[in-house]
Design brief:
This protein is of the alpha/beta class. The protein is built from twelve helices and nine strands. Strands 1, 2, 3, 4, 5, 6, 7, 8 and 9 form a nine-stranded mixed β-sheet that branches. It is globular and about 50 Å long. One of its GO terms (molecular function) is glycosyltransferase activity.
Length: 274
């Protein structure tokens, strides 16, 4: 089964993280046929050198955009350049565990009706030290029921290109949470969801992550969730719950990072595994 990996990189990316990411792709027990790497604007020499180092080994195909256009448009550009219908998403600061692609491709072979499949992930800090395991609901019905919680970890996703492009791809009007909005549209279109109940990715989670979770972002996230819940005619309380992250966003970043593990205990995505 042929498949592509889709990634986007821009000038402010951490070169060490990118090297660890590409090295993890090189160590996969099942190799991708191509890595579509969108260069969103001009990138640094350090980043270019790392990409050059892995280009032949991973069959990296660079898609260069002259000026930075943001993640959504970069990913949509990358989608158009993917040669295969199965596409694995990766972020350049994360690390794929060696069996990730093998597990997901095997899952799709056994469940050909599934359009989008993710997995659990293990959080890592800036030094690579392991933290919490991010778990989420697994079967389609539970994922659909809990879409307001965004029950997918975006860089763990393997999806079918034709299903995503038929919906117009990622929403370019959004600066963040484009994946969250996309899952609601996929649900409306009748897409079949799944998560593999196993950690297949090391997910970079640092204090910098919370700095990106500012008030404006959380309001936008709340609006996406509320409108998505409304479109699927799901309970009103779910739509209201989508605004809860705003309360966390007004706290100092260090405090957010400290209370995060406590709040996770109340996450409905965890109930299936508590």
């Amino acid at each position: 089964m042929n498949f592509s990996v889709l990634m986007s990189v821009y000038a402010k990316e951490n070169a060490r993280y990118l090297e660890e990411c590409l090295n993890s792709l090189a160590k996969q027990t099942l190799q991708a046929n191509e890595v579509i790497l969108v260069e969103d604007g001009l990138i640094t020499t350090d980043l270019s050198e790392i990409i050059k180092q892995y280009r032949n080994e991973l069959n990296i195909i660079s898609v260069r955009i002259p000026k930075n256009v943001g993640l959504a448009m970069a990913l949509n550009t990358g989608l158009k350049n993917c040669s295969y219908n199965l596409i694995a998403r990766m972020d350049t600061d994360d690390i794929a565990l060696p069996i990730r692609f093998e597990k997901q491709i095997d899952f799709i072979k056994k469940n050909p009706d599934v359009d989008i499949v993710g997995s659990f992930a293990i959080e890592i800090d800036e030094h690579g030290a392991h933290g919490n395991t991010r778990k989420t609901t697994v079967n389609h019905d539970q994922i659909h029921k809990n879409l307001f919680t965004c029950p997918f970890i975006h860089p763990t996703i393997l999806f079918k290109k034709d299903k995503i492009t038929a919906l117009g791809g990622y929403n370019t009007k959004l600066k963040r949470r484009q994946d969250y909005e996309l899952w609601f549209r996929c649900a409306q279109a009748g897409a079949k969801f799944a998560n593999i109940p196993e950690s297949l990715l090391l997910y970079r989670f640092t204090t910098q992550t919370h700095k990106r979770q500012n008030l404006k972002t959380c309001i936008e996230q709340g609006n996406i969730g509320y409108n998505g819940v409304k479109s699927l005619k799901q309970p009103l309380w779910q739509g209201i719950a989508c605004y809860i992250p705003i309360l966390r966003a007004i706290l100092p970043h260090k405090i957010q990072h400290i209370i995060y593990p406590i709040l996770k205990k109340f996450d409905p995505r965890q109930k299936e595994y508590s």
